[in-house]
């Protein structure tokens, strides 16, 4: 997979991309991630990328030309399956969207900043708008990292044990059951006997029961949807 990101502050993403499972995935050749500085696509000598909003009000708006130039220039190199804008008014990101995006070949992310991007950029270029939750961040970079991380770990070969992915919370519509490792007793608390029994069927049943219980208590919305499937 190839991922390109457009950002007004590309350096804030570099550290995470260089020191995480995302870095490992890149080293393994599973994914190539490139962050591009929007300023490199500015049209004036001051490399201006934002301007005051028409109609007044606070904050700055990202200008359309640098973004348009960047998207058009990158699109000459490859065809993007999706051009994704991170914004609090987008569709709320979830595991199903991550699963679908993990099957794509080329993705382009636009991280918003300041007050947002000129609406015409959204009309002309953006194919998908994603929010990572109902709160406002200072910029889309963290949101882009969240979405990219969730996608890349699903690509075969990106993480060590890919069978673990199927056991993630949300993959079957339920929260994940509790997990334990050694020692058997820690501060008086014992690892449930069934997990030490070697009985695969009993273990599977126990895990499903715990996942159902946890989901019912913590996320009645997910539980209801699970029962209706
Ligand atoms: N940019 C600012 N806040 C955001 C959010 N919640 N999701 C995605 N992008 C954002």
Number of helices: 8
Helix content: 25-40%
Question: Uncertain runs with pLDDT below 50, 5 residues or more?
Answer: none
Tell me the strand order in the biggest sheet: 2-1-6-5-8
Structural domain tally = 2
Total number of beta strands: 10
By CATH's scheme, which homologous superfamily of the largest domain applies? Answer: SPOUT methyltransferase, trefoil knot domain
- Mean pLDDT value: 95
CATH topology of the largest domain: Alpha/beta knot
Question: CA-to-CA gap between the ends?
Answer: 32 Å
Rg over C-alpha atoms, rounded to the nearest angstrom = 22 Å
Small-molecule components bound: adenine
Please state the structural category.
Answer: alpha/beta
Q: What's the story with the biggest beta sheet? A: 5 strands, parallel
Characterization of this structure:
With about 230 residues, the chain is of the alpha/beta class. It has 2 domains: about 150 residues, Alpha/beta knot; about 60 residues, Trp Operon Repressor, Chain A (Orthogonal Bundle), CATH 1.10.1270. A 5-stranded parallel sheet has the order 2-1-6-5-8, sandwiched between helices. The longest helix has 19 residues. It is elongated and about 70 Å long. The mean pLDDT is about 95. It binds adenine. The site of adenine has 12 residues, from strand 5.
